[in-house]
Amino acid sequence: MSQTTPPAVPAGFGPLRIPGWAGFDPARPEGGGLRAHWRGFATAVRIGWATEANWTDPLLFFIYSVAKPVSAALILVVMLEVIGGASSREYRSFIVVGSALWAMVLSGVAGLAWSILEDRERYRMIKYVYVSPSIFLVVMTGRAVARVAVGAMGALITLAVGVVLLGVPFDPLRIDWLLLAIVTGLGLVAIVSIGVILGAIVMQTRQEAWSYPEAVAGALFLVSGAVFPLAVLPFAVQLVGLLTPLAWWIEGSRRALFPDGISSIGGPGSAWLELSGTVEPSNLVTVIALLVTGAAGTLAAGLAFRASERRAKDRGLLDQTTGS
């Protein structure tokens, strides 16, 4: 069949008319190029936002989406005040920033995995998404980015509550905006990459897969220095944290927002001090470490998702419901 000839019409049927028919487009199954990839990604972000908001009123969605991170930060601060008293107030900015950033981490890391599980188990639409013209990973990444946006709202509100109600010292003139922009961009890529790896895992799983995202996020919470310095952990666990891009992203964000704040990577008794001989990493070292670990994570995410996608397609995992 030539590319300009419409398909044959069975006997007994009238002429087949397809508006705009120009034959089979070999680029369509591949997504149609960069412009089509971007269009599919943007559409996935909008769908992800609508799904995450459950098509509810924007104000109501805003309220309950920021309530969890704000309440978590308040609980941690109150616990710190009760245990440490006035001497612990210097840790307020440390805890508030870590809690705020972790809302984005949880949304991004678990977002893509939950999107796959929802489409496969709840909506049972994943096989139709897979055969759509857009690349499957692009669509799922767009869904994850929408969840990261929800987490970013909670992070901003948590920071605002910390400054206004908890007395966290904040001076906009002292913020290192260049460092903040660099680590934020690299950090978002690292978050989505970890989410892609987790998505590749849940694509192969059966029962109880819904608990995997939060379990992985909890493990990363321990080694990322979100609410306590890595120096309090055993040396081997600190090494794991140093290999995690999330630890460097949180460290860089803290250094950008509060240049004189407590370091989550360095400090007395830390593995960083023993390995490098310096008390804490500089801004340049933080950015380089985030870039290297993030690039390694992105490469691993691409390879893992491609291998998982191929195995899921060969074994029919995209076309079945596990009942989890």
Could you please describe the fold and organization of this structure?
There is one protein chain. The protein is an all-alpha fold and about 325 residues long. It has one domain (about 30-300). It has helices spanning about 35-55, 60-85, 90-120, 125-130, 135-165, 175-200, 210-225, 235-240, 245-255, 270-275, 285-315. Helix 2 packs across helix 5 (about 135-165) and helix 3 runs antiparallel to helix 7. The protein is globular, with a radius of gyration of 23 Å.
Question: What's this model, at a glance?
Answer:
The protein is mostly helical and 324 residues long.
Number of beta strands: 0
Roughly what fraction of the amino acids lie in strands? under 5%
State the end-to-end CA separation: 45 Å
- Sum up the overall morphology in one term: globular
Order of helices and strands: HHHHHHHHHHH
> Unreliable segments (pLDDT under 50, ≥5 consecutive)?
13-29
Feature tags:
single chain, 324 residues, mainly alpha, 11 helices, 0% strand, globular
Give the secondary structure arrangement, pairings included:
Blueprint: H1 34-53, H2 58-84, H3 92-122, H4 126-130, H5 136-164, H6 177-202, H7 212-223, H8 235-242, H9 245-257, H10 271-276, H11 283-314
